[in-house]
Write a structure and sequence with these properties.
Keywords: Cell membrane, Membrane, Protein transport, Transmembrane, Transmembrane helix, Transport. Belongs to the ExbD/TolR family. This is Biopolymer transport protein ExbD/TolR. The N and C termini lie far apart (93 Å). 40% of the residues lie in helices and 10% in strands. The longest helix is centred in the C-terminal third of the chain and has 27 residues. The chain has one domain. About 8% of the residues have low confidence. By secondary structure, the chain is an alpha/beta fold. Strands 3-2-1-4-5 form a 5-stranded mixed β-sheet, with helices on one face. The radius of gyration is 27 Å and the shape is flat.
Length: 204
């Protein structure tokens, strides 16, 4: 009578231990980048909104036909940035006012924004507005803020705002230098705070 050997069982206990150790290894060694998000300072809400003067709101509307209206006038996308810059940089308050903008280089019109800290950009889209046009409008508005921030950063620190921002997030930057860059970024952001209001879509 022949001896029939039973198949040898594989010990799966050690495999579970190895898998657990690998899981711990990847959890410890993997780095996850933190999302910066959009650096935007939203305008006041609720009852505070009634205190905002109309001259301090620059209205941009994108209609169903993807036409861009700035202050009710149809404009081309390439002209939007310049109009936003003129509005934010207007500095319309008189020199004897407490909030007079000493660094503004605009026309100081009485019917445009009083101070960059008060200026609000309102972007309103229609339900049928195409997404690429909406994003393009947002990009032009942000580009206007970056233009003004770069100008003041170059004047004050001899380096653009964008260059400071890149250096701040560099992996090689030392902590003491990082704190200096952080302070400079905050100074420029206070001069030109990015206030973008995006109301709900409109119905045409």
């Amino acid at each position: 009578m022949k001896n029939h050997r039973l198949p040898q069982e594989v010990n799966a206990g050690s495999m579970a231990d190895i898998a657990f150790l690998l899981l711990i290894f990847f959890l410890v060694t993997t780095t996850i980048d933190n999302d910066e998000g959009l650096n935007r300072l939203m305008p006041p809400e609720n009852e505070d909104i009634i205190d905002i003067k109309q001259r301090n709101i620059f209205k941009i509307v994108i209609n169903d036909n993807d036409q861009i209206l700035a202050e009710d006038d149809i404009i081309d996308l390439e002209n939007l940035k310049g109009q936003v810059i003129s509005f934010i940089d207007n500095g319309g308050l008189s020199a004897d006012h407490d909030d007079f903008c000493t660094y503004c280089k605009g026309d100081r019109l009485e019917d445009s924004s009083e101070n960059p800290s008060k200026a609000i950009i309102s972007i309103k889209s229609s339900r049928n507005t195409s997404y690429p046009v909406y994003v393009a409008v947002q990009n032009e508005v942000v580009a206007a803020y970056n233009h003004l921030r770069n100008r003041e950063s170059l004047r004050m620190f001899g380096i653009s705002f964008e260059a400071i921002h890149r250096e701040y997030f560099s992996e090689e930057i030392k902590n003491d230098k990082k704190e200096i860059l952080k302070d400079r970024l905050e100074i420029i952001r206070e001069l030109f705070p990015q206030k973008i209001l995006e109301p709900e879509s409109i119905n045409n």
